Amino acid sequence: MKVAKFGGTSLADAGQIQKVVQIVKADPTRRIVVVSAPGKRFSGDIKVTDLLIALAKAVLAGRPFESELAAVVERYAGIQQALNLDREVVTEIENDLRCRIQNRCENEAQFLDAIKAAGEDNCAKLMARVFTQQGLPARYVDPREAGMLLSEDFGNAQVLPESYTRLAALRNVPETVVFPGFFGYTQRGQVATFPRGGSDITGSILAAAVGAHQYENFTDVDSVFAIDPRILPNPRPIPVLTYREMRELAYAGFGVFHDEAIVPVVQAKIPICIKNTNRPDAPGTLIVPQRKYRHGEVIGIASADGFSTINLSKYMMNREVGFGRRLLQILEQEQLSFEHVPSGIDSMSVILRRAPLTRKKEEHVLNRIREELRPDDVTIAHDLALIMVVGEGMRYAVGMAAKACAALANTGVNIEMINQGSSEISIMFGVKEMDHKTAVEALGRALLAS
Ligand code: ASP
Question: Is the pTM of this model over 0.85?
Answer without folding.
Answer: yes
